[in-house]
Amino acid sequence: MARESVIALPAEIAAEQRHALALALAVGFARTLPTETGCAVEGCIHAPSKDGDERNHHAHVLMTTRTVRRLESGAIVLGGKM
């Protein structure tokens, strides 16, 4: 089970600017969540699909609905719901 946030990126700006914005927003957000909430996070930046709207630049950030911690053995343990 996960929660998802979708971050829309403006198609009107240059690709380099969009990439920098994606890193600042999506990656920054994804890096902050584990520290703030204790959850596990995954982020992906997507370009528009070939068959879709060419303006659909966006990023996905998925986070677990439970806290996560790693034991000294390396095992990952899920905690309580957030």
How would you characterize this protein structure?
This protein has 82 residues and is α+β, with helices and mostly antiparallel strands. Helix content is 28%, strand content 40%. The protein has 1 helix and 5 strands, in the order βαββββ. It has a 3-stranded antiparallel sheet with strand order 1-3-2, covered by helices on one side. It has a two-stranded antiparallel ribbon with strand order 4-5.
Number of helices: 1
Q: Which structural class is indicated by helix and strand composition? A: alpha+beta
What is the residue-averaged pLDDT?
Answer: 89
Low-pLDDT runs of 5+ residues are: none
What is the N-to-C order of secondary-structure elements (H for helix, E for strand)?
A: EHEEEE
The strand count comes to 5
Beta-strand portion reads: 35-45%
Ends apart, CA distance between termini: 12 Å
Domain unit count: 1
Silhouette: elongated
| Largest sheet, spatial ordering of strands | 1-3-2
Layout: helices, strands, pairs:
Elements (H helix, E strand, L loop, with lengths): L1 E8 L5 H23 L3 E6 L10 E8 L1 E5 L5 E6 L1
Antiparallel strand pairs: 1-3, 2-3, 4-5
Features:
single chain; 82 residues; alpha+beta; three-stranded antiparallel beta sheet; two-stranded antiparallel ribbon; 28% helix; 40% strand
Summarize this, please?
The chain contains one helix and five strands, in the order βαββββ. The chain has 82 residues and is an alpha+beta fold.
